[in-house]
Structure to design on (169 residues):
């Protein structure tokens, strides 16, 4: 434990370096070595795989497969009914002075309508409710959130007669 072991290096230095190998064996080894080298050259050797270049500092997770939905049963038993029919779309006609002026001068009826409906739905609702044809519909949303529709009638219909039939005047 407390002793220092001293190596005798003389056996390493005096060891024979060349071992006599017959010439025939040396030639066969050389041929085998050459064949091995040729095989490695044909194979292409091991190439160093380069890292993929990254052009953005942020990492985006790769897109993976998302299977299309194939439900085993319908989640709702029946499709929902259309909540905007003609009775729901047209709330009430306006009877203000400016609306009356529109009826007399411009052949136009003014309605307060549901805010979710569009011009085509308003036109269709007026046609179904009052059996009249509309030339065009202009809409605006009032500051109180209600939608106002100006329904211009065709020349075949008189807005004053339709207003009397509805009961505005």
């Amino acid at each position: 434990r407390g002793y220092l072991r001293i190596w005798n290096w003389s056996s390493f230095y005096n060891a024979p370096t060349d071992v006599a190998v017959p010439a025939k064996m040396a030639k066969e080894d050389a041929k085998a070595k050459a064949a091995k080298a040729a095989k490695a050259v044909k194979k292409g050797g091991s190439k160093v795989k380069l890292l993929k270049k990254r052009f953005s500092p942020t990492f985006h997770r790769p897109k993976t497969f998302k299977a299309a939905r194939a439900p085993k049963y319908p989640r709702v038993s029946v499709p929902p009914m259309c909540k905007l029919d003609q009775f729901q779309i047209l709330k009430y006609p306006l009877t203000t002075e400016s609306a009356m002026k529109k009826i007399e001068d411009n052949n136009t009826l003014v309605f307060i309508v549901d805010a979710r409906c569009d011009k085509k739905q308003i036109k269709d609702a007026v046609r179904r409710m009052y059996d009249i044809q509309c030339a065009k519909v202009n809409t605006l949303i009032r500051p109180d959130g209600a939608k106002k529709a100006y329904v211009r009638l065709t020349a075949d219909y008189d807005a004053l007669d339709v207003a009397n039939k509805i009961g505005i005047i």
Remarks:
- The chain has a mean pLDDT of 87.
- The chain has six helices and four strands.
